[in-house]
């Protein structure tokens, strides 16, 4: 379903977020990828990345501040997923 989004629609919704996300350090991109793969589970993501829960929450806050999307909110997480699938 995500792959059926047209380039025009992607650009209208996601281009600014995608550019900001691409400017982040690789650790933040990895964090968001794992967080989304783990179905937005803080516990599972922290365990997989071998980091403390608070470290993960700090990274998610940094992503929110730098990109403008809060991965803990479903709609924002969905936009991040679209960006990671189509924009990468």
How would you characterize the overall build of this protein?
The protein has helices spanning 7-22, 26-37, 42-49, 53-67, 74-87. The longest helix is centred in the first third of the chain and has 16 residues, at 7-22. It has five helices and no strands. It starts with 6 loop residues before the first helix and ends with a helix. It has a single domain (26-87), classed as PucR C-terminal helix-turn-helix domain (Arc Repressor Mutant, subunit A). The mean pLDDT is 91. Helix 1 (7-22) packs across helix 5 and helix 2 packs across helix 3. The chain has 88 residues and is mostly helical. Helices cover 74% and strands 0% of the residues.
Short key terms for the protein model shown above:
88 residues; mainly alpha; Arc Repressor Mutant, subunit A
User: What composes the largest sheet?
Assistant: none
What's the average pLDDT? 91
CATH class: Mainly Alpha
Instruction: Estimate the global geometry from the Cα principal axes.
Output: globular
Strand percentage: under 5%
First-last Cα distance: 17 Å
Say what the CATH topology is: Arc Repressor Mutant, subunit A
Order of helices and strands: HHHHH
CATH architecture: Orthogonal Bundle
How many runs of DSSP E, i.e. beta strands? Answer: 0
The CATH superfamily appears as PucR C-terminal helix-turn-helix domain
Unreliable stretches covering 5 or more consecutive residues: none
Number of helices: 5
What portion of residues is helical?
A: over 70%
């Amino acid at each position: 379903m995500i792959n059926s989004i047209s380039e025009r629609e992607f650009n209208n919704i996601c281009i600014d977020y995608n550019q900001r996300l691409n400017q982040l350090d690789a650790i933040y991109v990895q964090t968001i990828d794992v967080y989304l793969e783990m179905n937005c589970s803080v516990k599972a993501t922290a365990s997989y990345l071998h980091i403390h829960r608070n470290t993960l929450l700090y990274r998610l806050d940094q992503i929110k501040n730098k990109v403008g999307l809060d991965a803990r909110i479903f709609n924002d997480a969905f936009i991040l997923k679209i960006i990671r699938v189509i924009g990468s």
